[in-house]
Amino acid sequence: MSTPISRTVPKPTAAELNLLKVLWQHGPLSAKQVHEIAQADKPDLNYATVLRQLQIMHGKGILTRDESLRSHVYAPAQEADSLQTNLLKDLIQKVFAGSGKALVLAALRGGHVSAQERAEIEKILKEEK
């Protein structure tokens, strides 16, 4: 009898998020492929560091690993939007006292939203009504 998995995936560190972004953009990859792509942004990043980080992320449950091939293939255990939603909930609780409104206002006032993004937000808000 199978029981639903209720454990939560731990929050990734900044370095882990960088590797997750590569996997979300490119799909499942070997450590070598992740390293080659990540090196474009960080030329000093070495392969051993990427491999070890992927292994740690797999151990934490942040990544899945297909061991059926010679080179293990890593993939995110969670979709990007799902992880972003969970991280955002945590941020809203910790930084904005649980207020989504305070988060949105801070983003709008802080210049973090372009004119195009603001128009998209306004469109969504109008459609919600």
Automatic annotation (TrEMBL):
It comes from the Bacteria. Keywords: DNA-binding, Transcription, Transcription regulation. Belongs to the BlaI transcriptional regulatory family. This is BlaI/MecI/CopY family transcriptional regulator. It comes from Undibacterium curvum.
